[in-house]
Amino acid sequence: MALNLGVRVGNLQLKNPVMLASGCCGYALEMEEFFDLSLLGGYCLKGLCEGGSEGNPPPRLCETPGGLINSIGLQNIGIEAFLKEKAPKLRKAGSVMVANFYGHSVDEYAAAAERLQAEPCIAALEMNISCPNVKTGGIAFGTDPKLVHEVTAACRKATAKPLWVKLTPNVTDITETAKAAEDAGADALSCINTYPAMAIDVERRAFKINTRSGGLSGPAIKPLAVRAVYLVSKAVKIPVVGIGGISTWADAVEFMLAGASAVQVGTALFSNPLAPLEILEGMREYCARHGVEEISTLTGAAKDFERPSCNLPSRTK
Ligand SMILES: Cc1cc2nc3c(=O)[nH]c(=O)nc-3n(C[C@H](O)[C@H](O)[C@H](O)COP(=O)(O)O)c2cc1C
Fold it and tell me: Is residue 93 part of a domain?
């Protein structure tokens, strides 16, 4: 039986559903020493902005049970440097490149989208909206449906490339921001970014990372992310890309069953850079075992719990 691993995210065709998550694979060239990027469905670059950013001072990473808190502060080399130094090498990689980007104002977002639009090897743009808006005193764009609409609409005008909006889970109702992004013209939703978190060293009585709070990722957030994907995929018509603690093939299948069209692997790459290939192989075996011919049919296929029928002998009175 031939298995079709191909999936569509809006009008973008991926050869398989497994992608690398932004911030966990640098500018992807770093991963080439481990595997051929073209084996994957695609990869998301570290978030880029105009002018770049030095990020936060260390310590900016801290391990927690089943998780990782990071406060990198969106360090990046800037769009111009990326286009000049990295993009030419990536053109040969032969995989779907998604450029993650951000700004500190609506205008900065739109300008970034317009600049990235010019690079032919970028297949899609992924907006990181978990960033503070300087004009509203630092409220993250992604926490307010009105701001989500405004910034998405501005980027929509600025680019003809597929536009993915990466949702923050740091909201009361994620379906509100999801619908705002869809309404403003997003082609897909990446779901989700990290959860706000904190860790304190009790012996030193000191915060474990410089900025006190950071974003939690890894297996610890997986059930929260699966639920977010489920809720969002039910609330919108555009495709959802599932992210959050995926480290095994079963995690990836679970996200697809919850409603994801594709998945991204992030934190798992730090302990096992080969995780995406192992996940892909496991998904292939899962499909063979379950008679699945098109992997895309797994999207949203989770059923309600069924009590297993048990054939116990009927009780005699
Ligand atoms: C060190 C680190 C850096 C990250 N940088 C970005 C980034 O630049 N842009 C972005 O949208 N998400 C960024 N993320 C979030 C991840 O892409 C992903 O959404 C999140 O970590 C949840 O997935 P995971 O549990 O598989 O890591 C970063 C995550 C980590 C751990």
Answer: yes
